[in-house]
Amino acid sequence: MSEQKEQREGREKKRLLIIVLMLCCIIVLLFSGYQVIKILAAYHEAEAFYEDASATYTHPNVGNGIKEGKERPPIYVDLEELQEKNEDIIGWIYMEDTVVDYPLLQGTNNYYYLDKTYEKKYLASGSIYLDSRNESDMTDSYSIIYGHNMRNHTMFGDLDWFMEEEYLKGHPYIYILLPKGRWLKYEIFSVHRAGVEEITYEAPLKKSEFKELLKLSKEQNLFRENKSLTLPTPKSKDKVITLSTCTEDRAQMERFVLQAVLIYDSAAEQKSDDEKKDKKS
Questions:
Q1: CA nearest 249: which of 212, 191, 194?
Q2: Are 178 and 136 in contact (CB under 8 A)?
Q3: Is there a contact between 93 and 174 (Cβ–Cβ < 8 Å)?
Q4: Distances in Å between the alpha carbon of 64 and those of 75, 78, 126?
Q5: What's the pLDDT at 279?
Q6: Which of 85, 144, 203, 209 is packed most tightly, with the most Cβ within 10 A?
Q7: Residue 240 has what pLDDT?
Q8: Buried b (16+ CB within 10 A) or exposed e, 132-149
Q9: Which band of pLDDT confidence, cut at 50, 70 and 90, is reported for residue 64?
């Protein structure tokens, strides 16, 4: 009888263990499902928030009031209204056929807008923002712009598309719109991964450091040996920007970057026009 009792108790213990294990599995599955739903909800919230911002403050630029043959940005942005919400909004960044269509901010440090919107509310995807060490009017020879690499391709989640030659060929420009109608057009010249301790993440740069940066950008460029792709070659007198986002590197010691050189500044063209008018008068 005692042997049968021991066998029965053993079976009951195994049954109890199986039940406990099943409950643990169910709890893990429920928690995982909750986390997935939470992440998807955060993605949807961020996407909806910035789509609404774009719809509210931007529209296609049809060129009204712009003389024939003159450059014009692909969009118009009501920056003045935006800046009434937050004076940290310094402009707008736009890249055609990507989701990069966002307010550009600059905080007093490089952490505040990692998880906050331009309305200073918490959002996991944060904002696109200029390095706090740079001049807000983009007059530095070298400026760094940061954004999260979101899995739903919002923020700077589209930047890895530029690793494809054909995509880069068809989308070589980055536009930054600034207050008082000023806007800048940049052309991409380097696509690569950069170490967080490299000069890529120093700003602003001295003249000798800027030359070092250009040398490093050329050496690291994924397309450096591509003969079928013609990319610009920045000079020491040029102005350059870096768009920086995370990679899958868990140690967080490197970032994926696009680097572009300024090829058009509407303020320079306006100054030239004004000088011509002065000479005529």
A1: 194
A2: no
A3: yes
A4: 12, 15, 34
A5: 52
A6: 144
A7: 98
A8: bebebebebbbbbbbbbb
A9: very low
